[in-house]
Automatic annotation (TrEMBL):
PANTHER family: HYPOXANTHINE PHOSPHORIBOSYLTRANSFERASE, HYPOXANTHINE-GUANINE PHOSPHORIBOSYLTRANSFERASE
Keyword set includes Nucleotide-binding: yes
A Pfam family matched in the record: Pribosyltran
Pathway the protein takes part in: Purine metabolism; IMP biosynthesis via salvage pathway; IMP from hypoxanthine: step 1/1; Purine metabolism; GMP biosynthesis via salvage pathway; GMP from guanine: step 1/1
Keywords: Cytoplasm, Glycosyltransferase, Magnesium, Metal-binding, Nucleotide-binding, Purine salvage, Transferase
Source organism, top-level taxon: Bacteria
Protein name: Hypoxanthine phosphoribosyltransferase
InterPro entries listed in its UniProt record: HGPRT, Hxn_phspho_trans, PRTase-like, PRTase_dom
Length: 183
């Protein structure tokens, strides 16, 4: 049972581990085809994207580089503050690079629209976004997403890198947190 230790904290299971991995394989084939003959720098956004990054990188049958940024707009709450702070910047020079931002979720879109513009301003040849989840009903700004795993309802989700107050990131699938946990 993949959710055994958190079962009482979940309102429902949304996406299973198998479904996540099948989707990652699909995305990896598209990315391989789109970036044929080009360099590829995967930029993971800490901390939530750690699981997607690790699994996507291994699903790709090609050379890649990885770098990491840490930004924060949520603190320990469940609603975006809208203010994005860089907690850790990239080590790489982006000049002329093909950058693929790897994310776990696009919710309001505030983090990713800010981050994409920020990386584009550093002279990259291209900056695209790959996100495992997106909430179309929660978007406050348009974000141009090239690769999206699943569109999900506007509910607070946990698992596969996504936390509530730093818990649940190691859940293998994705679920909706029961309101009694945070109310
Ligand atoms: O579209 P938005 O409303 O801006 O939300 C998306 C952001 O929220 C999550 O990160 P969070 O700030 O929770 O930090 P974490 O990755 O360290 O958990 C997620 O990883 C995105 O970066
Ligand atoms: N854990 C979690 N983090 C988020 N950050 C933005 N949206 C979400 C969400 O639904 N769940």
């Amino acid at each position: 049972m993949e959710f055994e230790h958190v079962e009482g904290d979940l309102a429902k299971t949304l996406i299973t581990e198998d479904e996540l991995h099948a989707k990652l394989d699909e995305l990896a084939r598209q990315i391989e085809s789109d970036y044929q003959g080009k360099d590829l720098l995967l930029v993971g956004v800490l901390r939530g994207a750690v699981m997607v990054m690790a699994d996507l990188a291994r699903a790709l049958n090609r050379h890649i580089e990885m770098d990491w940024m840490a930004v924060s707009s949520y603190g320990s709450g469940t609603v975006s503050s809208g203010v994005v702070r860089i907690l850790k910047d990239l080590d790489s020079d982006l000049t002329g690079r093909n950058v693929l931002i790897v994310e776990d979720i696009i919710d309001s879109g505030l983090t990713l629209s800010w981050l994409k513009a920020n990386l584009e301003s550093r002279g990259a040849a291209s900056v695209e976004i790959c996100t495992m989840l997106r909430k179309p009903d929660a978007l406050k700004v348009e974000v141009d997403v090239k690769y999206c795993g699943f569109d999900i309802p506007n509910e607070f989700v946990i698992g596969y890198g996504l936390d509530y107050a730093e818990q649940y990131r190691n859940m293998r699938g994705i679920g909706v947190l029961a309101p009694h946990v945070y109310q």
